[in-house]
Write a structure and sequence with these properties.
Keywords: Signal. Residues 1-16 form the signal peptide. This protein is 32% helix and 6% strand. α1 packs antiparallel against α14, α2 (95-103) crosses α8 and α8 (242-259) packs parallel to α9. The chain is mainly α. The strands form 3 sheets. Strands 3-2-1-8 form a 4-stranded parallel β-sheet. Strands 4-5 form a two-stranded parallel ribbon. It has a two-stranded parallel ribbon with strand order 6-7. It has helices at 7-33, 95-103, 137-140, 179-182, 188-195, 207-212, 214-222, 242-259, 276-284, 300-303, 308-323, 341-357, 363-367, 471-489, and strands at 162-170, 202-205, 226-229, 266-267, 288-289, 294-295, 334-335, 359-362. The chain starts with 6 loop residues before the first helix and ends with a helix.
């Protein structure tokens, strides 16, 4: 039989092919768009023009072969005079801080109350776990936000047997000239980590300490440790106004950018004090919250508020549980510090023992996160875990919506956004991400930013309404059926 296709038949065939192709693209788009429901964030635009000590931060990072025990190097090309007073609340009326405040979409910041402190400076706890509408960790240990566009706090390593080594409050400097005390300051801890397998850690730096001890910050970064934010002056963050929260985070971001050349995507609130208001501000400034699930209480050693025996018993118990095969649910993120000779001695005592029973790596290694900064990498050799089973972040599954595969002690019922008010400190017209930096001209924009939880892939198309993902499939099937009927019976 001789077949001859009319022009109308050819048109039908061409249209069917186009729709089928669009259907395939829409399937990919639907998959990409559904990877995360979190609010997309980009590289902080306010750091785009900060002068860094090197043209490329990678030039500061050493290869594993070149990392060795050594004294600190002198810093070069740094001008750090234009910063607030160290370890004091930074001002909010500075033009740089005001510029950041204008960039934030305040409609996405829950209107949680500003918490109160007692007369002696401690946090005044009022809410309970049963009455905690804003996921206030200090009150209820809540780490899974009550709003669905902010990711859950990271508090443990997904793979059992991993130990996410990290230290708060650095870089540690002794201001006394007493040589017995001076010997404990950096690079003592960093040299010790080199001596024990060049083990990596995640370091939560206080911005004030970065500015006053930049050579130690550069040394840690060059050794492959991951740098994260720990605020400028170490306050209870929920006791601050929105503007004060921005100021604490901004000056620390700027210090790290100017001293080390990178913009971290991670931070830890001092004392773990965080609620959804503070979480949202940090997320909108480009940082995800990291907490812990093993508290060593080592910070109390210097003040003698806890005994060395008690702290030592914590570590021995953790090791004993692992040895007895009673610690197989997930790995751990401890809370430790580089803030005194006592905390350094604690690491020197227990790190070798931990390495016998745990896979001791940085937090980012145990998460399989090779993109801890907004700047272009590659950072792989700084954050690669030798254990491939640790490469999946169970806190956020890229194939599951918020809440799935996320072990949590809290259960959110109903609409996460119900009855939650939002802050706007004067500008009610800001649109989500309307002023967030995009494009290759922004030096702080990472090529890997699309991998960050909460960022929708740029390949995502709007071909399909989310409520009707199969419309194109139905249309193309109907058209193809019509075409074949036309060919056979025409």
């Amino acid at each position: 039989m001789h077949w001859s296709l009319s022009s109308s038949t050819t048109l039908l065939l061409t249209t069917a092919a186009i729709i089928a192709s669009a259907n395939e693209e829409a399937d990919v788009s639907s998959s990409s768009s559904s990877t995360s429901s979190y609010l997309a964030v980009e590289s902080p635009v306010w750091l785009a023009n900060i002068k860094t000590p090197y043209d490329n931060a990678r030039s500061l990072a050493l290869s594993e072969e070149d990392i060795m025990v050594r004294p600190l190097d002198q810093v070069k090309n740094l001008h750090l005079s234009n910063y607030p007073s160290p370890l004091k609340a930074p001002p909010v009326d500075d033009p740089e801080v005001q510029a950041v405040i204008e960039q934030i979409d305040w409609s996405k910041v829950p209107k949680a109350p500003i918490r109160k402190a007692t007369v002696d400076g401690e946090l005044k706890i009022e809410e309970t776990k049963e009455n905690d509408p804003y996921c206030w960790w200090s009150s209820s240990l809540c780490s899974n936000p009550k709003v669905d566009y902010i990711p859950e706090d990271i508090s443990y390593c997904p793979q059992a047997g991993d130990w996410g080594l990290n230290y708060d409050d650095g870089p540690y400097r002794v201001w006394s000239e007493d040589e017995d005390e001076k010997q404990w300051e950096e690079p003592r801890l960093y040299n010790f980590l080199v001596e024990h397998g060049k083990v990596k850690s995640t370091l939560f730096y206080i911005g004030s300490n970065v500015v006053t001890f930049p050579e130690a910050a550069q040394r840690a970064f060059s050794d492959g440790h991951t740098i994260c934010s720990h605020t400028w002056s170490h306050p209870y963050m929920t006791t601050l106004t929105n503007e004060q929260v921005v100021s604490e985070l901004y000056w620390t971001q700027k210090a790290m950018k100017e001293v080390v050349g990178v913009t971290p995507k991670c931070w830890r609130p001092p004392y773990g004090d965080i609620d959804d208001r503070v979480r949202a501000i940090a997320w909108l400034m480009g940082m995800r919250t990291i907490l812990w699930d093993r508290d060593s209480n080592d910070w109390g050693l210097a003040a003698q508020s806890i005994s060395a025996d008690t702290v030592n018993n914590y570590f021995q118990d953790w090791i004993d549980q692992r040895v007895a095969n009673k610690d197989n649910d997930h790995g751990h993120i401890p809370l430790q510090h580089e803030s005194s000779n006592h905390t350094i001695m604690l690491t020197e005592k227990w790190l070798p023992e931990l390495q016998k029973h745990f896979n001791v790596v940085s937090i980012h290694q145990c998460l399989g996160d090779t993109s801890p900064y907004w700047e272009d990498g590659p950072w792989n050799n700084m954050n690669t875990n030798d254990n491939p089973a640790s490469s999946v972040d169970r806190h956020i599954s890229e194939n599951a919506p918020s809440g799935e595969n996320q072990p949590s002690t809290e259960q959110n019922s109903g609409d996460n956004n119900a009855n939650i008010e939002f802050n706007d400190p004067g500008n009610g017209n800001s649109l989500p991400n309307s002023r967030i930096a995009m494009g290759t001209n922004n030096k702080t924009l990472s090529k890997d930013h699309k991998k960050m939880p909460g960022t929708v892939s740029s390949n995502a198309s709007s071909l399909l309404p989310s409520s009707h993902p199969n419309l194109l499939l139905l249309d193309s099937t109907l058209l193809l059926s019509t075409f074949f009927a036309f060919v056979l019976f025409a």
